[in-house]
Task: structure prediction
Amino acid sequence: MQYLLSISNWLSSRTAPFIIAVAAMTFVWPAVFEWVRGDVQTCILGFIMLTMGMTLTTEDFRILARRPLDIFIGAVAQYSIMPLLAFSLVYLFELPEGIAAGLILVGCSPGGVSSNIMSLLCRGDVAYSVGMTTASTLLAPVMTPLLVLWLAGESIDVDAVGLFRSILLVTLLPVGIGTLCNRVFGKSSGFRTACALMPGLAVLGLACIVGGVTSAHGGKFFESGALIFFCIFLHNGFGYLLGYLVGLLTRMSQAKRRTLSIEVGMQNAGLATVLAGRHFPLLPEAAIAAAISCVWHSISGTLIAAFFALLDKRKPTR
Result:
């Protein structure tokens, strides 16, 4: 068991390079992840969300009640900055329909689960990070379909009800089951050991999703040229910057500003990838844009956490 725990810790601390390695391997040997399609992909994402639920305790939900203003500021920033940034980039660069759908879907998704790890690494406010991730995930079944319909509905056929149903099944349901399990079995040593393995298993699940999309569409990754990569880079980078500025303007502590920056900038692009494949089957570029975002957000999250940690070595955190 100690060996498995070591592997889990190794994977969770090296998420970005591991995801990149899986994507590169699948690009060369696409048959490796041909089995990750449709319902299998959805089940894997549901499992990732289950692992998140297993880590949530009653105290985490009390955080939402005790810090309503902070959570409100974070939720507003999350569901305004990234969707509007995505829409602006689509309009500014006149992106093709498929890429536009993928980028907007990523922008309208909730915060990424791995953002909690990044907040821990950069001495952010981890409790706030967990609270924000929980809040944005709980809001996702309503906010994501409505925002996608509003921002992309005029140019893309959006099934908002279908999106609502899918997000409900792959986010709230597994998170709720995981939280209930934690509530019932949380004091069990076996359950705590299983929870300790979950971060590594979540990384493996994310790698499978990226591998599945790369297997299906890897040959088209570079057909749109550098523009798709540039837009994803801008979307993510400005998300970090504007998230930090919101914390600055609302006079949050440095730890909270860092957390807000990461929570706003890092989206649950794995969810966006699954939704794109399911709801935009005629626009394969949507899943490609979401998959590239999935890989890049993992890399950039690690880089921004390392940058904040480097600042701490030069100047103590206030």
Notes: Residues 284-314 form the longest helix (31 residues). The chain has a mean pLDDT of 82.
